[in-house]
Design goal:
It contains four helices and three strands. The chain is α/β, with parallel strands linked by helices and about 110 residues long. It has a three-stranded parallel beta sheet with strand order 1-2-3, with helices on one face. Strand 1, helix 3 and strand 2 form a beta-alpha-beta unit. Helix 2 packs across helix 3. The radius of gyration is 14 Å and the shape is globular.
Amino acid sequence: LIKTHQIGVVSAAERYRHVSENHAQWKFLTMRDVLPRHIDMFISIGDSMAEKMAATKLQSHQSSPRVMKTIKMLDAPSLESLLVQQKHLSSMLMLICAFDTFGLHTTLEI
């Protein structure tokens, strides 16, 4: 999925673990740093609530995207579950991106 769609991966822990022990704070700071100032849609995909919390905090800032979507994957999945999640996400990604609602924060749990 990452290779197919040329999705960049950034480690929030590597960037900010020295600043705080709060994972959501690491993720917020990283999202703030790497997102362009003007972006229409942002999709956060993660296996912990820290991603969702960081995305929600990001949306409350003035330079936030007008459409925010979070996809919550299973916590600590088995390899089989991880493969199933990835297959579902891959098949739904275009539909998830196509749904464009202004100012909406949408959450999908896979």
